[in-house]
Amino acid sequence: MPKQLAPDGTRNIIGQHLKKLRKEAHLSQNDLARKLQLRGYEIDRNTITRIEAGIRFVSDIELKALVEIFDVDYEVLFHGR
Predict the structure, then answer these.
(1) Burial zone of 60 (CB within 10 Å; 0-12 exposed, 13-18 middle, 19+ buried)
(2) Is 43 exposed, middle or buried (0-12, 13-18, 19+ CB in 10 A)?
(3) Which of 5, 9, 53, 67 has the fewest Cβ atoms nearer than 10 Å?
(4) Could you list the pLDDT tens digit for every one of the 81 residues in the chain?
């Protein structure tokens, strides 16, 4: 069974919102990956790149990690600010 795609055909709906949050926080993809790794999440720069580009699905664990790092509600990742 094929996986569900976002309305725009990407594999997630948070990619562009994640990119905006990251840039607002003045973090590079490497910086964000490092912060996530220091908290025990196995997310590298390549993973961040693929999520932001919408070519990678996002797990619930990764979503939780991103919410923690940016200290935002889930809604911000889903709908933006």
Answers:
(1) exposed
(2) buried
(3) 9
(4) 777 898 899 999 999 999 999 999 999 999 999 999 999 999 999 999 999 999 999 999 999 999 999 999 999 999 987
Q: With contact defined as beta carbons under 8 Å apart, do 52 and 38 qualify?
A: no
What is the CB neighbour count within 10 angstroms for residue 32?
22
Which pair of tokens denotes residue 58?
Answer: 């996002």
Structure tokens at 69: 């790092």
Residues contacting residue 33 through CB under 8 Å, at least 6 positions apart: 43, 44, 45, 47, 48
Whether the predicted model's global pTM rises above the 0.85 cut: yes
